[in-house]
Amino acid sequence: GFRELRGTDDWTGATGGCFVSRAGALIAWYVPEGAPAHTPFRIIGTHTDSPNLRIKPAPDTGTSGWRQIGVEIYGGVPLNTWLDRDL
């Protein structure tokens, strides 16, 4: 599993899965055990205006060596907050 790191924690040498959550944003990463400090990394980002994403049944998928989690949009855009106003 992943463990949460806080701003006051010592992040030095943190291996395995870690995450930080602040103001509705989530950043997660995985550092393999024994990885050298100069090991390259990848940054992946996403965004949705839907109220939330729900994990699908049997969500574990993957292709080309990448692991993925299947999600679906739950809810909708709150259109009534801007459709009834002049542009």
Automatic annotation (TrEMBL):
E.C. no: 3.4.11.-
UniProt GO BP: proteolysis
Record carries keyword Hydrolase: yes
Entry GO CC: cytoplasm
First-tier enzyme category under EC: hydrolase
Keywords: Aminopeptidase, Hydrolase, Metal-binding, Metalloprotease, Protease, Zinc
Cofactor: Zn(2+)
SUPFAM superfamilies, per database record: Aminopeptidase/glucanase lid domain, Zn-dependent exopeptidases
Gene Ontology MF terms: aminopeptidase activity; metallopeptidase activity; zinc ion binding
PANTHER family linked: ASPARTYL AMINOPEPTIDASE
Family: Belongs to the peptidase M18 family.
Protein name: M18 family aminopeptidase
Species name: Streptomyces sp. SID7499
Source species taxonomy: Bacteria, Bacillati, Actinomycetota, Actinomycetes, Kitasatosporales
